[in-house]
UniProtKB/TrEMBL annotation:
Its EC number is 2.7.13.3. The keyword Transferase applies. InterPro entries: HATPase_C_sf (IPR036890), HATPase_dom (IPR003594), PAS (IPR000014), PAS-like_dom_sf (IPR035965), PAS_fold (IPR013767), Sensor_HK_TwoCompSys (IPR050482), Sig_transdc_His_kin_sub3_dim/P (IPR011712). It catalyses: ATP + protein L-histidine = ADP + protein N-phospho-L-histidine. Keywords: ATP-binding, Kinase, Nucleotide-binding, Phosphoprotein, Transferase, Two-component regulatory system. Residues 35-84 form the PAS domain. SUPFAM superfamilies: ATPase domain of HSP90 chaperone/DNA topoisomerase II/histidine kinase, PYP-like sensor domain (PAS domain). GO terms for biological process: regulation of DNA-templated transcription. PROSITE patterns: PAS. This is histidine kinase. GO terms for molecular function: ATP binding; phosphorelay sensor kinase activity; protein dimerization activity. One of its GO terms (cellular component) is membrane.
Length: 380
C-alpha cells in the first residue's frame, strides 16, 4: 500500500500521476465494476473488447457481456459480491469488429470496497494465442493417439500374420525336412557295413552321425519357431483367458531369465472379449519385457483383481527402481501401453515399489468393457 495523505493536494496529485502511469499505460486491461456497471476501464481493456472507453464506461454488465455468456457472467459477478470466492477467472469470447476469429479474454476479478460500497476490480488478459496453442497441443495429442492406435492395430495384425506364416509355412517346411532326414537315416541304417571297406564303414558312420545331428537341429528349430509363433500371437489366449496366459508366461519368464515370478489371481472378471484380453496381455507382456531389460530384479509379482467396478492388473519388481524404467529415445512401449488403457477409459500408474523397484498398476472400468459374445464386443 502506497502511503498517501488525503489532506495534501500535492500528494493526491502525485498519487494520481502514479495511478495514470501504472494503470492507464498498463498493457493489461483493467476494469472496476460496481452496482452492475463498469465504473472504470483503461485503454487496454477497451481495446481488447474492440471498442472505446467511452462506449464501455457507465454501461451495465448485462449490456456489454456477450449474449451467450451473459447469464454466467452475471452469476459470477453476484458470487463475487456475496464473497463466496475472493478471486475468480473467467474466459470471455469476443468477436471484435473487422476480425473473423473470436478473441479469448481471460478475466480476473477480486472483491474490494470502493467509496464505502462493494465492488469488483480486476484485469483482462488477451489469452487468444495461449488458448490456440493449447488447442493445437490437444489436437496433436488426439492425432498422436489415433496414430498409436493405428500402429498397435497394424502391429497386432502383423504379429498374427507372421505367427501364422511361421507356424504354417516355415513349420511345415521344417517338418518335411525332418521326415526327409528320418528317411535318410533309415536308408543309412539298411546299408550293411560288412559289404564295404573300412573307409566306407567310417564314412557311413560319420554320415549317420551327421544325419542324427541334423535331425536334432531341425527338432530344436521347430521348437524355437513354435515358441516365436506363440510369443507373437498366443493361439490359446482366447481359450485360456488372461489369468492362465499370465501364469504360463511367468513360468517361462522365470525359466528363461532366472527372475522369480509370482502370480496372484483374486477372482477378477474373466468374460472379456478377445480384443480386450489381447490388450491386457500386451500390457502385461510389455511390463514383463521392461523388467527383463531394465529392472535388474530378482523377483516380479503380478496380480489381477476386481476392485469395485474396476479390473486391476498390477506388476511390481524388486529391481533398481524408477531410473531403470526411464523412457528411452525411440522407444514407445510406455506410450502404447497408455494408449491401450486409454481406449477403455482406464488409468495407468507407475510408482516406486515397496521393495525399492517399480510398481505398474493398470485399472480398467469393467462397465466400459462389453461381455464376450455380446453384439458390441469387438466393435471398439
Amino acid at each position: 500500500m502506497i502511503p498517501v495523505d488525503p489532506s495534501s493536494p500535492a500528494e493526491l496529485a502525485n498519487y494520481r500521476y502514479l495511478f495514470e502511469g501504472l494503470i492507464e499505460q498498463s498493457v493489461a486491461g483493467i476494469y472496476l465494476l460496481q452496482n452492475d456497471k463498469l465504473i472504470y476501464v483503461n485503454e487496454a481493456f477497451a481495446k481488447m473488447c474492440g471498442t472505446s472507453r467511452d462506449k464501455l464506461a457507465g454501461k451495465s454488465l448485462a449490456d456489454v457481456a456477450p449474449r451467450d455468456q451473459r447469464d454466467e457472467l452475471l452469476r459470477q459477478y453476484a458470487r463475487r459480491l456475496r464473497g463466496e470466492s475472493p478471486e475468480n477467472t473467467f474466459i470471455v469470447r469476443i468477436k471484435r469488429p473487422n476480425e473473423s476469429t473470436m478473441r479469448a479474454i481471460e478475466i480476473h476479478g477480486r472483491l474490494i470496497s470502493y467509496r464505502g460500497e462493494p465492488a469488483v476490480i480486476g484485469v483482462g488478459i488477451d489469452a487468444t494465442s495461449r488458448l490456440l496453442r493449447h488447442q493445437e497441443l490437444e489436437d496433436s495429442k488426439a492425432r498422436l493417439s489415433e496414430l498409436l492406435t493405428y500402429i498397435q492395430k497394424v502391429r497386432d495384425e502383423e504379429r498374427l500374420d507372421i505367427s501364422m506364416e511361421l507356424h504354417d509355412a516355415v513349420g511345415g517346411m521344417l517338418s518335411a525336412l525332418r521326415f526327409d532326414l528320418i528317411r535318410i537315416g533309415k536308408k543309412i541304417g539298411r546299408l550293411t557295413p560288412l559289404q564295404h571297406s573300412h573307409e566306407a564303414k567310417v564314412q557311413l558312420g560319420e554320415l549317420e552321425d551327421t544325419a542324427e545331428q541334423a535331425m536334432q537341429l531341425v527338432q530344436d528349430t521347430i521348437k524355437v519357431v513354435r515358441q516365436i509363433s506363440e510369443d507373437l500371437h498366443p493361439s490359446a489366449l482366447p481359450h485360456l483367458g488372461i489369468a492362465e496366459a499370465i501364469k504360463n508366461d511367468l513360468e517361462k519368464f522365470e525359466s528363461r531369465y532366472g527372475i522369480r515370478g509370482d502370480f496372484h489371481h483374486a477372482g477378477a472378471r474373466a468374460d472379456f472379449p478377445d480384443e480386450t484380453v489381447r490388450d491386457l496381455y500386451r500390457i502385461f507382456q510389455e511390463g514383463l519385457n521392461n523388467v527383463a531389460k531394465h529392472a535388474r530384479a530378482t523377483r516380479v509379482a503380478v496380480s489381477i483383481r476386481q476392485a469395485d467396478q474396476w479390473f486391476v492388473l498390477s506388476m511390481e519388481d524388486d529391481g533398481v527402481g524408477m531410473a531403470g524404467h526411464a523412457p528411452q529415445p525411440g522407444k514407445y512401449g510406455l506410450s502404447t501401453m497408455r494408449e491401450r488403457v486409454r481406449r477403455y477409459g482406464g488409468t495407468l500408474d507407475i510408482a516406486p515399489g515397496a521393495q525399492g523397484g517399480v510398481r505398474l498398476t493398470v485399472g480398467i472400468p469393467v462397465a466400459g468393457i462389453p461381455v464376450a459374445g455380446s453384439p458390441v464386443a469387438g466393435q471398439r
